């Protein structure tokens, strides 16, 4: 195309070949410019139309290829996913059955182990009870032996006399007659101050069956015990009664040299109207009061022996009931523990079953979604793809897409 280059003058045109200037009027100039523009525009238009046509054909071919490839890819992926989900569903069902079977087997195993442990513990408890009873019997026999040895030792004890006091006098008098008149008796100082106070001496006599049938708490008071003021016998009654009750003695006797000039305390004086089973005696009547109270109590030996036997039986029954209650309590705790473990195992099984049921429901839901996706893929056609897109519809119409593609 010939290039027309305008000069400084608006109506002059320079020839590109010879360089000659031509002068034209405005109408001619406008006509020449219009011709030049029309030719260039048509040339450019034809060029762009050709390029657009070529690009359109390329895009159409690419769209057809992509649509075909996508349809094949969707179909293949759909088939693969369906097979995979079917396989997973079958595997999940198998795993569920296996898990339930294992859980049930474990629960049965735990239950059997708990029952075996309970039976074993019951047998062990019986053996322990028998061993404990035998041990108690041996301990009681040993204690009886120790008591006998202690009694014999006390019977053979001698008092080292440091002076002629009232306590020494009474102890010497008793020991002189012990083997003859009191072979089964105990007589000694009260050294137990656990109750806060203690008496001077305690006398206890026993039958041949080793049943205690008389007991006396003694308190010895002489004139030398007084300091600046004279004491009265009644000043010691309250403490003596308290010591008698604290030490479990039946009688209380005050051996006193106080109030020598009193007409009341001349021999054996009964003061039971003040304190129960209490007597005040002079030292020369010390053995007499023991013999008197012991002889009076000998008539009750049989009754006391029967009472002691009943008491021992009651203690045995109480101990047996206590041991039985302990066994029942221990057995109940073991049973409750086993039951809680069993209930926990059953609860775990229920939880596992619920969880597997949810997995199954999820897989069934996935299968339903796959069915819907398959239906949508089956219903997919080129017409539906090109709906609302006239350009693509026209291109597919020009390509004359067969019905099989629509069906795909």
From TrEMBL:
<protein>
    <recommendedName>
        <fullName>DUF2130 domain-containing protein</fullName>
    </recommendedName>
</protein>
<dbReference type="InterPro" id="IPR019219">
    <property type="entry name" value="DUF2130"/>
</dbReference>
<dbReference type="Pfam" id="PF09903">
    <property type="entry name" value="DUF2130"/>
</dbReference>
């Amino acid at each position: 195309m010939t290039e027309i280059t305008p000069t400084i003058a608006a109506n002059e045109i320079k020839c590109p070949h010879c360089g000659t200037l031509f002068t034209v009027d405005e109408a001619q100039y406008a006509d020449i410019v219009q011709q030049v523009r029309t030719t260039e525009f048509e040339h450019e238009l034809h060029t762009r139309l050709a390029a657009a046509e070529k690009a359109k054909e390329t895009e159409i071919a690419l769209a057809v290829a992509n649509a075909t490839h996508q349809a094949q890819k969707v179909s293949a992926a759909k088939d693969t996913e369906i097979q995979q989900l079917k396989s997973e569903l079958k595997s999940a069902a198998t795993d569920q059955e296996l898990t339930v079977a294992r859980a049930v087997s474990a629960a049965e195993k735990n239950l059997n182990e708990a029952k075996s442990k309970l039976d074993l513990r019951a047998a062990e408890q019986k053996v322990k009870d028998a061993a404990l009873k035998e041990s108690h019997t041996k301990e009681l026999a040993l204690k009886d032996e120790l008591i006998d040895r202690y009694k014999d030792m006390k019977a053979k004890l001698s008092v080292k006399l440091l002076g002629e006091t009232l306590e020494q006098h009474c102890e010497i008098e008793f020991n002189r007659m012990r083997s003859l008149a009191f072979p089964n008796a105990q007589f000694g100082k009260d050294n137990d101050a656990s109750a806060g106070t203690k008496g001077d001496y305690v006398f206890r006599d026993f039958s041949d069956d080793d049943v205690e049938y008389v007991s006396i708490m003694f308190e010895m008071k002489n004139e030398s015990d007084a300091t600046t003021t004279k004491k009265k016998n009644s000043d010691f009654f309250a403490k003596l009664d308290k010591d008698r009750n604290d030490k479990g003695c039946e009688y209380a006797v005050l051996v006193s040299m106080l109030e020598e000039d009193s007409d009341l305390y001349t021999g054996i004086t009964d003061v039971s109207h003040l304190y129960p089973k209490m007597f005040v005696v002079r030292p020369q009547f010390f053995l007499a009061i023991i013999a008197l109270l012991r002889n009076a109590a000998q008539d009750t030996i049989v009754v006391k022996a029967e009472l002691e036997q009943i008491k021992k039986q009651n203690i045995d029954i109480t101990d047996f009931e206590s041991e039985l209650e302990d066994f029942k309590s221990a057995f109940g705790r073991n049973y409750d523990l086993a039951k809680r473990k069993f209930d926990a195992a059953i609860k775990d099984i229920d939880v596992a079953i619920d969880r597997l049921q949810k997995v199954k429901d999820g897989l069934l839901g996935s299968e339903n979604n796959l069915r819907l996706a398959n239906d949508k893929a089956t219903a997919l056609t080129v017409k539906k793809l090109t709906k609302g897109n006239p350009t693509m519809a026209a291109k597919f119409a020009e390509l004359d897409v067969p019905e099989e593609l629509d069906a795909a």
